[in-house]
Write a structure and sequence with these properties.
Blueprint: H1 3-25, H2 29-49, H3 55-66, H4 68-86, H5 90-95, H6 97-125, H7 132-142, H8 147-153, H9 161-190, H10 197-225, H11 229-250, H12 254-271, H13 273-279, H14 284-307, H15 315-343, H16 354-363, H17 369-376, H18 384-432
Helix pairs in contact: 1-2, 1-14, 2-14, 4-12, 4-14, 4-17, 6-7, 6-9, 6-15, 7-9, 7-18, 8-9, 9-10, 9-12, 10-11, 10-12, 11-12, 15-16, 15-18, 17-18
Length: 433
Amino acid sequence: MSLLEILIVLLFLIVVIGLANEKLFHLQSDIALLLLSLILGIVMSGLGKLHISSFYESFIGELGELGFEAYLMDCVLCFMLFAGASKVNMRKFRQNLKTISLLALLTTVLSSFLYGGIFYGLLHLLGLDISIWTCVLLGCIVSPTDPIAATGILNKLGLSKNVTSVIESESLFNDGTGVALFVFVKSIVSRSGESNFLMVMAKEVLGAFAVAMILSFVLGKCLELTTDPVRQIFISVLDVAAVYVICEHFGFSGVIASVVCGMYIANVMEKLARRRAVYDPHNLYIDFWEVLDSIFNAILFVMIGISVINTNVSRIFLLLIPVGIVSVVVSRFLGVAFSSLLTGRKKIPSNYSFVEFVTLMTWSALKGGLSLALALGTAEFLPKDIYLIVLNTTYITIFFTVVVQGLSVSAGYRMIEKHKAKRIQRNSLGRTN
């Protein structure tokens, strides 16, 4: 199949699933794409095993040759991150900067190592032999919250702007920490010699920030020179694409660079708001990035949903389900708890108590395509049996966080809000008495 034929099949699935969800299921769109594409994949796979249709196996093979990792990391990731960063509320971001910084940096590092220890212990209780550093590597893969899942799902679930800003901003920045930590632990597992995490982190973050700011400053000036909204779109696309490629070439974090780029250009466009209202009354610039983000996001979730059928459902796979879920939830809870203690009660947003905030940030931590791309990248240096454990656990984590947590986070948020209201009411009554 050609690339265009693969794209046609993916778009067909997106349309069919979208219509079915709109008329029958009424799920959040990204969750519906992931869940229904999985169900459709199971049905098609079953037909293939019954020799009724071999199309699905052929399509999955073609999709595998295309490469999920290449599609995400080398093609669309920078544009999706740019679009997500463009929506960040800068005022809320500055208000919660300490909280976001600790969550993006400290929580990610702590959760990765805690995950590794918990996963290692649980596997050995079940009699499975895997090294502690491989478990930590898996922690680096699944601990960072995914910006694509966060911006695609959490924005549509009715959370307050303050909370949404913290979750979005953390998810946009903690991937850089996760990738740097992944590179560091990967060097230990593969014995490639890169062993100084602080040096890796400094290079990834500072290099990315410098490249993004310099190029965005220059192209931001170009944005101010034109009153053509289409040309402004081209400049923004050029900016994020060039920044991402330059950073990846020099070993900086293209992920962080794309986020910085998106926030900088969004700030420039905000300053031009009055002028843009005259020459771009229909908001072509904003609509372009909304539509592009929706298309890439939909394709991403369908690709994840249908590719999971490649997993081998064995006894080990079934054992990995509870182990992976317990490890990711407990490690995230402990990591957020420690960072929240350092943040201080007064810096916790929206007047949440310590337990309320930690619970919300734990359950709203969704994983997505970036985790899967990193897991697929371990095939080059891990033994096949260990690689399958890493890959299958990543699939389990993505589906649990996106489907189970994604469907229930809105109800959980409302419960926490009710608990907060009752707590504030009790405290106010106590003061009056």
